[in-house]
Design goal:
It comes from Fervidobacterium gondwanense DSM 13020. The chain has 57 residues and is an alpha+beta fold. It contains 2 helices and 2 strands. The radius of gyration is 15 Å and the shape is elongated. The N and C termini lie far apart (34 Å).
């Protein structure tokens, strides 16, 4: 993740105009999450399911 920090901080993304930052993050996580979407407020929401173990206790 640190290898992307320099690139991420160089993206222009002032408040209310974070499209470039959001696109960068989406390009990096698309193969690592089950789904992602942008809500009405512009937040990037990423979902990753985890396997459920039976008889954990």
């Amino acid at each position: 993740m640190l290898k992307y920090l320099k690139e991420l901080t160089e993206i222009k993304g002032p408040s209310g105009n974070e499209d470039g930052v959001r696109e960068f993050i989406m390009s990096k996580i698309k193969d690592k999450v089950d789904e992602f979407f942008v809500d009405r407020m512009g937040n990037l929401i990423a979902l990753k399911s985890i396997p459920v173990r039976k008889n954990r206790f």
